[in-house]
Amino acid sequence: MESKSDLRISGIGKSQGGSYSHVRTDGMAKIKGDTSCISLDSNGTMSIEGALQSESVTVNGTATVEGHVNTNRMVLDGMATLKEQVVCTELLTVNGRLSVGRGLIGEKVEIFGNLKTREDVGCEVFSVFGGFSIDGLLNAGLVDVKLNMPCRVQEIGGDTITVRRAKKYSVIEQFVPALSARLHAHTIEGDEVDLEYTDAEIVRGNNVRIGEGCKIGRVEYKQQLQRDADAQIGSAHQL
Amino acid sequence: MNEEDLISKKELLELTGISYGQLYRWKRKNLIPEEWFVRKSSFTGQETFFPRDKILQRIERIKNMKDGLSLDELADMFSPNLGAESMSAVKLIERNIVTIFSLELFEEEMGQKELLSFNDILTVYVLHKLLQGGEITREEGKMLIAVMREHYGDLAAKPCELALIRKMGVPLLFLTESAEQIYFDKDVKWVFRLSLAASIEELKLKLNEMEA
Q1: Pairing status of strand A215-227 against strand A232-238
Q2: Where is this region: Disordered (chain A) (predicted)?
Q3: CA distance A192 to A204
Q4: Helices (DSSP H) in chain A: which residue ranges?
Q5: How far is B34 from chain A (nearest CA, A)?
Q6: In angstroms, rounded to a whole number, what is the distance separating the alpha carbons of residues B112 and B124?
Q7: Spatial distance between the Cα atoms of A108 and A161, rounded to a whole number of angstroms
Q8: DSSP structural state of residue A51
Q9: Are A110 and A94 in contact (CB under 8 A)?
Q10: CB atoms closer than 10 angstroms to residue A55
Q11: pLDDT beneath 70: ranges in chain B
């Protein structure tokens, strides 16, 4: 295989897309076209008007990608807007804000900031220490949420689902309920479901624990149901 | 799709004995196609339903095969994408995947080939199935080869159907993405309809079995 050249932009620069071995941008960079590379390292502001394929992606600052993103590893420190489908086959770490215009497919997803997607999320491990908003189904083997901000999702489905609260009640939350660190979902289905501070219409599972601060419309369980004295449950049915 | 042909998620889990975790894992691995998840409103809000026959058959298959194969290998088998395998004509005969008769017909049309691509193997396999079932004639077999060669690439990754109709003895063979909503006048007779995705699945199974 022929070796490919690197792309470097420092200061303000524009470039065409193409196939590179390493891409590094410092400052304001605009890449016009589909880009494929081994690694992409961006500091400052970067925008790609096309699809991005890269083994590893690191973003410090802000980044916008118009097309599909396909990577093995991605670390986002800052703000990223990815307007199409995102596939990240190994590890996705979000330390800032990530907004995805379509869906997200990954292996391990770690959110220490905020994730927003317009469609479904599918991965093996989904761990959150922050907040998320997913307009669709969150489908993961392990869902581990430490609530720190308001979280919203339509449906959660998976093997093990755990929702905990990471911080104590603050004063603001008492006055503005919309800002309280709670999980809002329509349906939660899993084998092991363990919830705290969750609002859901329906929770279904084999072993279900409804902990403090929960408001659940209907619980359906196969083996056992543990409920906290503080939890509100509309109706519970053993199948 | 009729109401009766659907099965609710709850009923499905009860009937097959699988758990939510397994169902979602299989969905993640694309063992169950996205379009089988039919959302309908019900008294609890929204419920997921599945086409009954398809999903029950698929889950039975997954349960039977998952010990021998990894989930990714299974996903590959169920995907309508073409496999990468190619095989020599001699081997196909040896392994009893196709008959000499159908292969000869194929070679008559396409010329002799040392190595058959997956697409070619599929064509011969479908040809073999239909000829053996007595559903098509040799002439119609030639039409089949032509239609598969010309158009299959366009439809490759989609679940498509192969169908043959006759009107007053005149055959018409076509490849369609969905034959659900096609209506002909009463003189037209459906001779057969064949889901290519199912044939690909069968064929991949056969090719794999032999390797093991």
Answers
A1: parallel
A2: 1-21
A3: 9
A4: 171-175
A5: 11
A6: 13
A7: 15
A8: -
A9: yes
A10: 16
A11: 1-4, 44-45, 79-85, 155-157, 178-180, 208-212
Instruction: Of A46, A59, A53, A36, give the one whose Cα is nearest residue A14.
Output: A46
Identify the residue whose tokens are 């032999």.
Answer: B210
- What's the CA gap between B64 and A10, in Å, rounded? 57
**d(C-alpha A168, C-alpha A148), whole Å:** 9
How many other C-beta atoms lie within 10 A of the C-beta of residue B208?
A: 17
CB atoms within 10 A of CB A101: 16
Q: Which of residues 46-75 of B touch A (CB under 8 A)?
A: 46
**Percent above pLDDT 90 for chain A:** 80
Q: Among partner residues A186, A202, A206, which is closest to B19 by beta-carbon distance? A: A206
Q: Tell me the pTM.
A: 0.73
Question: Which tokens go with B197?
Answer: 């995705």
Q: What is the pLDDT of residues B113-158, one digit of tens each?
A: 777 777 788 888 888 888 888 888 888 888 888 888 787 777 666 7
Question: Which residues have CB under 8 Å from A197's CB, separation 6+?
Answer: A147, A163, A165, A181, A182, A183, A211, A212, A213, A214
Closest Cβ opposite residue B24 in set A157, A217, A239: A157
List the beta bridge partners of residue B20: none
Q: Are A29 and A41 in contact (CB under 8 A)?
A: no
ipTM: 0.84
Contacts of A218 in chain B (CB under 8 A): 44
| Beta carbons within 8 Å of A95's beta carbon, 6+ residues apart | A75, A76, A77, A78, A112, A113
A139 vs B14, B27, B44: nearest CB: B27
* Distance between CA atoms of residues A131 and A114, nearest Å: 5
